[in-house]
Amino acid sequence: MNKRSQRLLALDKKHLWHPFTPMREWAAHDQLIIERGGGSYLYDTDGNKYLDGVSSLWVTLHGHRQKEIDQAIRAQLDKVAHSTLLGLANVPALELAAELIKLAPPGLSRVFYSDDGSTAVEIALKIAFQYWQQTKLPTSNLKLQNKSKITNFKSKTKFVTFVNAYHGDTIGSVSVGGIDLFHKIYRPLLFKSLKVKMGDAAALENVLKKRHREIAAVIMEPLVQAAAGMLMAPRGFLKKARQLCTRYDVLLICDEVATGFGRTGRMFACEHEGITPDLICVAKGLTGGYLPVAATLATEKIYRAFLGRPEENRTFFHGHTFTGNPLGCAAALASLKLFKKERRLDNVRKNIKLLEKELPKFRALEQVLEIRRCGAMVGIELRPDGKPGLGHRVILEARRRGAILRPLGEVIVLMPPLSITQAELKKLLNITYQSIETTTALIR
Ligand SMILES: *Cc1c(COP(=O)(O)O)cnc(C)c1O
């Protein structure tokens, strides 16, 4: 490690507090400091080169230092870096909203911006809650409402969520989360939600049937619970959830923060089952992984419940300072253009084919318990070996071999940039294979 790296590492140990990181362990070891990137690679301050196997935490789509996105941000810098959406509009935010609506599942028509996945989820929850507070007459399902003699919907205040759900780290998002390791300690701070097992259609129907008068919305990660360790929902469950929500007059929120923008092989995971949620949350890949911009998309029906004379207070009183940031929106517009120009989804499909062919080989490794995949999102679950941190030991080995990975417990995640070449993806798979093999061979 060179002198400069040592100096920087000292600053890290002195001042930085890293997310999701046991800091005592962290401080006891030397850490990588990333200096620059290019394509599918990251480079540390000693000039070492690593394949970015998790898209810098699931965000990078077209690679690092992508020419068109770099240029779009520079061009926007020559105009204005930031202007607020409170009381004003700006050019990239408007153009991006129109593009998002074009790409999103049909029926979504309004874009509410924020900064991160967590904020996009908070916004969806608050909109869903407020929607029912301001909706007086029975809406879509007259028969159901009349039978239960509902005249207003003010009692619809609860959310149905799934075991192992992850929707972000702010208090509202944690309230609808279901990963005990992350969420349990905050329980006294949280609002209660109704938990159902992912994929259990009968349980979902049961809770909706019995308690729809209390339920504002169901929130789910479509097809795959990513942060839980790439857990797959059974095929058809998303569609079933949509049908049940419609039948029982409950809103459906789809959190596509991880699955959105091509990760599953389609632009959005919802497309695989041909459904439109009432609200959809997008973030991670929205700017191609460049800047923090997120959005919550809503249907016109929901939007209209917020219209009225100012003194009626139907307004959605919510907004983050950097909402609709022009630099971020310009990056997002450039990223969306690249999907067309580079036929990005074609490349994803090619990569999916390669994964289909290569991943079964991992079964030869004794320590591999299960391989799960949705499109180009991969989780390789390892059999615990009795010593703590097997996943972590494997990714450290991968680092020595030239790839950056980040595990979820004992699940090794692969989610490389959509633009990764076949050769690079093969290399990533080889490094992963060898890293699991060597790490587990050492302890036998
Ligand atoms: C990452 C993630 C979030 C949280 O996004 P942040 O940008 O980290 O706040 C929410 N939902 C899902 C499904 C995610 O994967």
Which properties best describe this structure?
4-stranded mixed β-sheet, 444 residues, Aspartate Aminotransferase, domain 1, 2 domains, alpha/beta, 7-stranded mixed β-sheet, binds pyridoxal-5'-phosphate, single chain
Which SSEs are present, and which pair or pack?
Layout: H1 3-15, H2 23-27, E1 34-38, E2 41-44, E3 49-52, H3 55-58, H4 67-77, H5 91-103, E4 108-114, H6 117-133, H7 142-147, E5 158-162, H8 171-175, H9 180-183, E6 194-196, H10 201-211, E7 215-220, E8 224-225, E9 231-232, H11 237-247, E10 251-255, E11 279-282, E12 294-299, H12 300-304, H13 326-341, H14 344-358, E13 368-374, E14 377-382, H15 390-400, E15 403-404, E16 411-414, H16 422-443
Parallel strand pairs: 3-15, 5-6, 5-7, 7-10, 10-11
Antiparallel strand pairs: 1-2, 2-3, 4-12, 8-9, 11-12, 13-14, 14-16
The structure holds pyridoxal-5'-phosphate.
Pyridoxal-5'-phosphate binds at residues 116-118, 121, 166-168, 221, 226-227, 255, 257-258, 283-284.
Q: What is this entry, summarized?
A:
This protein has 444 residues and is α/β, with parallel strands linked by helices. 38% of the residues lie in helices and 16% in strands.
Which ligands, by name, code or SMILES, are bound? pyridoxal-5'-phosphate
From the helix content, strand content and strand pairing, which structural class follows?
A: alpha/beta
Count, helices:
16
Unreliable spans? none
- Corresponding CATH architecture of the largest domain: 3-Layer(aba) Sandwich
- Look at the structure and give the mean pLDDT: 95
Q: Please tell me how large the radius of gyration is.
A: 23 Å
Number of domains: 2
The strand order across the widest sheet is 4-12-11-10-7-5-6
Q: Quick one: CATH class of the largest domain?
A: Alpha Beta
The overall strand count is 16
Identify the CATH homologous superfamily of the largest domain.
Answer: Type I PLP-dependent aspartate aminotransferase-like (Major domain)
Q: What is the overall shape? A: globular
Fraction in helix = 25-40%
Portion in beta strands: 15-25%
Distance between the termini: 31 Å
Which sheet architecture does the biggest sheet show? 7 strands, mixed
- In CATH, the topology of the largest domain is named Aspartate Aminotransferase, domain 2
